[in-house]
Amino acid sequence: MSKTIKQIADELGVSKPTISRLISDLGIEPFKVGNRFELSDYDSSLIKSQISQIGETPQSQKTQQSQNEKSQKTQQSQQKSPQSQQETQKSQQKTQTAANLPQTEFAAVVEVLQTTIDTLQGQLATKDEQIKTQQEQISALQSELERERQHARNQAEKLAVLADQAQQLHAADKKALLAIEDKQDPPKRHWWQRKRKEQTEE
């Protein structure tokens, strides 16, 4: 059964230019079937044997490389296994040692831990009390500040009212003075003042 150059290249895991170069080197003449060139089974066998003589195909090289990597991983896992076993044994020994402590030593350890816990709880309670006191002081200061602001607003309003009243009083006083001046009689003149005025008018 005839095959195309692409089919042979895919089967051997090489590129089409490699197959074309071998066809030229071996003097093989492909025959045309429709719109493509094909090779006979005999020519395909020649190309395959030539590839095998040149060396392993890339596909076989990849397979061998994959197998080598798997082998290395297996060896590494086997090397790590003793280490993990040693770590497990150490952990078991520590647990067993803790379990084998005398009752008095165990009680002493528990007492030390309890004392430490009590001390920490006392420190936390003190901190909580300090925080509570500071919060109360802050609240008192905020209330005092609000009272001062309200007092300042009240004083400003009072000053505005007083200024308005003062302005009104000033206007009223000025008006009253003008009215008094209008009501007053003109000053009396002496006879010589009247005579001088008459002469001036003449």
UniProtKB/TrEMBL annotation:
What residue range is the signal peptide? none
Q: Output the superkingdom of the source species.
A: Bacteria
Q: Where is the composition biased (Low complexity)?
A: 57-97
Region (Disordered): which ranges?
50-100, 177-202
Positions with biased composition (Basic residues): 189-202
Give the coiled coil ranges.
117-169
UniProt entry keywords in alphabetical sequence: Coiled coil
Keyword ATP-binding in annotation: no
Q: Where is composition skewed (Basic and acidic residues) in this entry?
A: 177-188
Q: How is this protein named in the record?
A: DNA binding domain-containing protein, excisionase family
